[in-house]
Amino acid sequence: MIAESSPFPWFSTARRSTRRLVVVAYWLVALGVFGLIQWKLAFHSNYPVPTWMELLFPLQVIVFLPALLGGVRAGGFVKPFRGVKWAPMQERDDTQTLFGPTRPVINSMTAADIHLDERERRQRDSVHFAAYTCARWFALGLLILEFGAAAAGPEWMMRAGNAAFYLLALVLWSLPQTLILWNEPDVTVPDMEPQQ
Amino acid sequence: MNAEVVLLGRRISMASQSRRRALVVTIYAAFAILLAALWVLTGWRGSGAWVIWAAILACRVFLGGYYNGGLVKPFNNKAPKQPAMPPSILALRLRVYQPVAPDGQSAWRNDERELHQRDHAHYLAYQAIGVAVCVPMLIASMRLIRPSLMSWIPMSPDAIYYGLTLVALILFLTLPQAILLWTEHDMEEQQS
To answer: In chain A, N or C: fewer CB atoms in 10 Å?
Structure first.
């Protein structure tokens, strides 16, 4: 499930420890943005309503950061869950690698990165089963959060509604990729192993 | 997947795909009516939790999956807990007890194909809910900028958030089973 071609050519995610660092950094950034906005809204009483640009930032976090992890789109650390079906992306060309045979590529991705085989599809589905179970309990927790916000007052309810859907979208768009990156063992690339 | 559902002591065949699809449509229509009725009667104040109970009841009686009973085998692949005591007189009179399956493990254990179907249904449901939740997130975000954005809707925005969260929870509890019931072919055809 781990893509052979990294979004950053100088950064390999073949090792699990590296991938775990990526996951931790990802969640720190995503939750940091969320916490910053909520902190400004909650504790700065003279803080004006957010501008469109300030709104754009957390939305970009939702849209672009999961794309960095992959899964929901091609080009990330995880292979795209649905493959690449857009016709212009399927025009292939071969490139010469430094120490190995030529590889068919699609933009920066190798052909192996755009389609899941049977084993990977099963892995994708089972990871989504686990993620779905987590997200279900998380959604129940958010409902309880809204109960509390409704009891606290309408101003809190407005913030809680925004916060709840932001967190739910973040979890839904990121959790399967997170589980894959966290649990997948180290990837060994035969081409790169030193010859005996 | 079970081929029949027990409702008030009657066994209703659900072997045909069309019947199962009709059941799914009926269940979601019932949820819509329940949500609308609770909104008219109480504005969901203090009654929203009933919707969750209704979803659990629908799982226990019709859908299965997360709870024992219903058409879809338990997702956790574990044997249901059998109470040491026999069903209560009230349950017997109301005929709401579940009859004991005669063939043991096949009533609850998922084979390899069924486990794969379960996982794939969760994948599809996850994608659907993931896309759907973006709409309320955008609405909630825009309301932070323009608090008067939803003033034309005859509901308070907070009630809308609450209702959408309830809908999300209903989908979380029922959508994988609904996908399985919707897509599984006629059981007679499979046997032939």
So the answer is: C
As a whole number of angstroms, the distance between CA A19 and CA A25 comes to 10
Q: Which of residues 8-47 of B touch A (CB under 8 A)?
A: none
Write out pLDDT tens, residues B139-192.
Answer: 777 777 666 767 777 777 778 888 888 899 999 999 999 999 999 988 865 444
Q: Is A123 exposed, middle or buried (0-12, 13-18, 19+ CB in 10 A)?
A: middle
Strand-pairing partners, residue A95, are A103
> Strand order of the sheet with strand A93-95?
A93-95, A103-106, A109-110
ipTM of the complex: 0.84
Q: Taking the domains of chain A in order of start, what are their residue ranges?
A: 16-86+115-187
Helix, strand or coil for residue A115?
A: coil
d(CA B57, CA A93): 55
**Is B48:A142 a contact under the CB 8 Å cutoff?**
no
Q: List the single residue in A161, A165, A169 with the smallest CB-CB distance to B158.
A: A161
> Are the C-beta atoms of residues B136 and A138 closer than 8 Å to each other?
no
Cβ–Cβ < 8 Å for B141, A59: yes
Regarding pTM above 0.90, the answer is no
